[in-house]
Amino acid sequence: MLQQVLAILALPIVQTTIWILVVTVGVILSVAFAVLFERKIIGWMQLRKGPNRVGSIFGIWPGVFQAFADVLKLLIKEVVVPTRANKFLFGLAPIIALVPALATWAVVPLSPDLVIADIDAGLLYVLALTSMGVYGVIIAGWAANSKYAFLGAMRSAAQIVAYEIAMGFALVGVVMAAGSLNLGDIVRQQAGGPLSWNVIWLFPLAVVYIISGVAETNRAPFDVAEGESEIVAGFHVEYSGIAFALFFLAEYANMLLISALTAVFFFGGWLSPFDGYLPQGSWLAQPSFLWLGVKISAFMFFYYWLRATFPRYRYDQIMRLGWKVLIPVTLVWIAVEGVMAYCKVGPWKVLAP
Amino acid sequence: MFVMILFYAFSSVLIAAALGVITTRNPVHSALCLVLAFFTSAGIWLLIEAEFLAIVLVLVYVGAVMVLFLFVVMMLDVSFEELRRGFTRYAWLGWLTACVVILELVGVIAARRLGVDATQAPTPLPADYGNTHELGTVIYTKYVYAFELAAVLLLVAIVAAIALTMRKRPGLKVQDVAGQVAVRAGDRIRLVKVDAEKRP
Fold it and tell me: N or C: at which end does chain B have fewer Cβ atoms within 10 angstroms?
């Protein structure tokens, strides 16, 4: 009996399914704590305490279970469907928003030997799936049959399309450096201490990628899609209860994903920042999931820091920044990188002629 | 077996979605059906191990083209009553086109004897084979001129599209961004020293 169970568990398809479950549940739990992290960080930055009630009964850290309390509250609330809304699409939109945010994790290398799908066209898969996320927003805005939601959806669609191009061009530079579309290979190419990470050689592209990442996830200061002061809450203004919670989950899962991808593409993914500075045997110098986690947390902190610091961009400024600043910067740096690769400076010395 | 089930599932969804594109009354629903059709055909391409084409189909058509399409369809106020009025008048043209297309398809299948039993299932390639790499190699060596020509053609199309739609209207108010950025506090605010006055 036990042997049969073990044999079933050893099947590749079962193993993959288990890993998919582990990663998905991990992402969802991380979202819960990322929300708490955000509220605490922004609270401290604004000299408040942040959430400090739920969980204090267990002792030392008040507020730990705030996110779970929020989800419970949203679960028991009524989902209101507006009159003359398209019910099917209205229900479908949160799912469409959430699925790409979770599915992209399949190709993210979490540690040297843990990636659910080690595919060669991994980077293209990432780009294809992140570009799907916009449908959740558009469909939500359209199906709700509300002016504000529709305006938010239109803003978001234009913004995501614009910044996707800058993002894709920034990744062209990464692909040129790595000579591969496989995310694991991209990380492995950056081995050898923080000085050989892509962020050093591709600094302008890294800046463009980080800015576009903030814009892609509709976060402050690019959150005109929600724009509380003008259009109430943007595309999800008509959503309530658990349907709203799904949008919330999708937004934070996307933030975690963009943080992980920034770490993978420009900051050496699971590589240790002490590699080459500490003795090889030291666990601090070993590549592991720990470092990816640290980097993801650092970028999440960066997101919250931005949100607590900057006012919202004006819409035309967002468009100008995307089309007229970020895209030319990437084009210039791709050309510079071509020259560097031709002269075999920097990480390109390993490339075949 | 599993692949066959997937193939039939994808194919039936694809056909249903394609029918949806031409039969639904709401243009937004049609566009969404087209998105579904693209997505399922990408799934079918994955089944024949053309992963690069499948991903690019999703990336380009689903991720970019259809978003703009939806954008336009949602914003435009198209009068569909008017469009539908011509339906019966031009129906014969539609039937004619359909017949020609069906004849051509049958002709191709008959001429090449492409029956279900005549075509072999493609032999599965080893797990480390990636057609992204193969495609890149071929495009940049053997077909480099054709590839560059296609790129130039696309560039011309982009320039033409912009040139055709750009029109200079008189009396347009446009922001001078460089001027806005160059503004200093001194240009906007004048600090004036005013002597205190005695209360009358």
Answer: C
Cβ count within 10 A of residue A24: 15
| Residue of A138, A150, A182 best to disrupt the B interface, most CBs of B under 10 A | A138
Of B58, B67, B132, the CB nearest to A161: B67
Q: What is the DSSP letter of B93?
A: H
Instruction: ipTM value, please give it.
Output: 0.79
- Which chain B residues are closer than 8 Å to A131 by Cβ? 58-59, 62-64, 67
Interface test with B, best of A129, A130, A316 (most B CBs within 10 A): A129
**What six digits make up the tokens of A104?**
């992209």
Angstrom distance (rounded) from CA A98 to CA A142:
17
Count of domains in chain B? 3
User: From chain B, which residues contact A within 8 Å (Cβ)?
Assistant: 28, 32, 35, 51-52, 55-56, 58-59, 62-64, 67-68, 70-71, 74-75, 130, 132-133, 175, 177
Mean pLDDT of B92-107: 89
Q: What is the pTM of this model?
A: 0.83
Is residue B68 a part of any domain in this protein? Answer: yes
Please name the member of B55, B75, B175 whose beta carbon is closest to the beta carbon of A128.
B55
Please check whether residues B2 and B34 belong to one and the same domain.
Answer: yes
Model pLDDT for residues B22-71, shown as the tens digit of each residue = 888 788 888 889 999 998 999 888 888 788 888 888 888 888 888 888 88
In sequence order, the 6+-apart residues with CB closer than 8 A to the CB of B66 are B31, B34, B35, B38
Residue of B nearest to A122 (CA): B55
User: In this structure, are B163 and B100 located in the same domain?
Assistant: no
**Tokens read off for A64:** 């730990």
pLDDT tens-place string over residues A285-340: 777 888 888 999 999 999 999 988 888 888 888 888 888 888 899 999 888 888 88
Entry field: residues in chain A: 353
Question: What is the domain extent for residue B100?
Answer: 81-109
Residues of A in contact with B64 (CB under 8 A): 131, 161, 164
* DSSP result, A190-210: T-SSGGGSHHHHTHHHHHHHH
Name the DSSP letter for residue A111.
B
> Token pair for residue B8?
């039939």
B26 assigned to some structural domain: yes
